[in-house]
Amino acid sequence: PTPDHSPAPTGRQLITNDDLETGDASGWILSDPSVNGGSVAVTTEDSNGAGTNSVKITSGTLNNPSLKQERFAVGTISDGQTISITFDYNAIALADGAIFQVIAISEGPPVTNQVTNVAVGPSSGWVTGETISYTTGAVTEGISVEMVVVCGGAGTCNGEVFIDNVSVTID
Predict the structure, then answer these.
(1) Residue 29: enclosing H or E segment and its boundaries?
(2) Quick check: 68 and 143 in contact, CB under 8 A?
(3) What pLDDT band is residue 10 in, cutting at 50, 70 and 90?
(4) pTM for this structure?
(5) Which residues lie below 8 Å from residue 102, measured CB to CB, with a gap of 6+?
(6) Cα distance between residue 41 and residue 110, in whole Å
């Protein structure tokens, strides 16, 4: 049969393991610490909402560890649609150049992206329902969403961010 490439209904969750309650990183790609530095792990150390799990991203000098879902919603999302990326986060530390960013990527060709700086300093507890809107470019190979804690060259640069309840929906 011919796949249906009509726009997906609005409000439909497009990612898997959005609340990390599988207890592991199923559906997510955790960056390789030997390449990106820092660390990324599913943890019960801190979470928001009814569940017990979240992801903890820890960054230091010249690190950019990340959490990513890659090339999803192929055949579900159309070029030029607007998506909402909604999530909860608790920025325990973002010091001396550390930034928490969310990157939305249209996996064309051509590949295009939008980088949003979410936080440049610690939060005072969980920030719930943070939402970023992104209008897709070419999505022949789907879309990707990456959450990263970037640290610059300052020797004292450090970041620690917990992320939970990630949702990607079509507006």
Answers:
(1) strand 29-30
(2) no
(3) low
(4) 0.91
(5) 85, 87, 115, 116, 118, 132, 145, 146, 147, 148
(6) 31
**Six-digit token string for 16:** 């898997």
Pairing of strands 39-43, 54-60: antiparallel
Show the DSSP H helices in the chain as ranges. 33-36
Asked, as a colleague might, if the bond just before 33 is cis with ω within 30 of 0, I would say: no
* Separation in Å, CA 66 to CA 28, 77, 102, 135: 10, 24, 9, 22
Sheet of 111-119, strand order: 29-30, 66-72, 143-150, 99-107, 111-119
Structure tokens at 153: 């060259």
Residues in contact with 44: Cβ distance below 8 Å, sequence separation at least 6, in sequence order: 52, 53
Tens of pLDDT, residue by residue over 33-64, are 999 999 999 999 999 988 899 999 999 999 99
Task: Quote the longest CA-to-CA distance of the chain.
Answer: 57
